[in-house]
Amino acid sequence: MPDGFDLVIFDCDGVLIDSEMLVCRVCAEVFTAQGFPITATEIARRFIGRSAAQMFGEIERDAGRPLPEALRDEVKGRVNAALAGEVEAMPGLGALLDRLQVPACVASSSDPERLRTSLGAAGLYERFQPHVYSAVEVPRGKPAPDLFLHAAARLGAAPEACVVVEDSLAGVAAGRAAGMAVIGFTGGGHCGPSHGEALRAAGAGAAVRSMAELAALLLPPSGAAA
């Protein structure tokens, strides 16, 4: 953690909302039914933290044939429908945001429509808007640093004064490449017992399991002067 910081950049899926395995399951069902067999576990291992475009491209490469456009549309529609009906904010997030003394934003590999859907369903979109940034806004998605640097620039924060909260290896790599401090978050349902160790090995300065633990790093001690 830097001695002081001016901006907290949150990833969305797996940090603000516990949605990663839901998305992986839906994607696996659609791909497999359409003749591109893959499991939710493999999607989680390979693509969590990365963009849909990256996932589609690699599955096409593995299969040696293009994905039908209708399949891409079905994945997007099924994922958005599932997110609209099944996601909630991570426990304790609201209390953390209420006490956070610096600006916060969202920087996610998800496209803008999915971000509106998932954050809206969790009651978070209006809380972060207009500072909700998608990988479609930059040339390269995570693990490249482009998205985090874009978010910092939009809020006028120096990279070295930013803290990124990420659940994925790609996201941790992106944050470190951007010159930012990174906290790994392992409170999502997709995170196994060794996930925190993996995030630290990838460059996270710390790994936390809950919003309460995250608050202990981001908020001043109770009773301290603001």
Strand fraction band?
5-15%
Oligomer: single chain
- What's the main sheet like? 6 strands, parallel
Overall structural class, as computed from helix and strand content, comes to alpha/beta
How many domains make up the 3D coordinates? 2
Q: What is the first-to-last residue Cα distance?
A: 18 Å
Helix content: 40-55%
Q: Which whole number gives the mean pLDDT?
A: 92
- Output the CATH class name of the largest domain: Alpha Beta
Count all strands and give the number.
6
Q: What overall form do the CA principal axes indicate?
A: globular
Q: List the uncertain runs.
A: none
Q: What is the H level of CATH, i.e. the homologous superfamily of the largest domain?
A: HAD superfamily/HAD-like
Q: Which architecture name of the largest domain does CATH use?
A: 3-Layer(aba) Sandwich
> What's the CATH topology label of the largest domain?
Rossmann fold
Number of helices: 11
Indicate the radius of gyration in whole angstroms.
17 Å
What strand line-up does the widest sheet have?
3-2-1-4-5-6
The helix-strand sequence is EHHHHHEHHEHEHEHEH
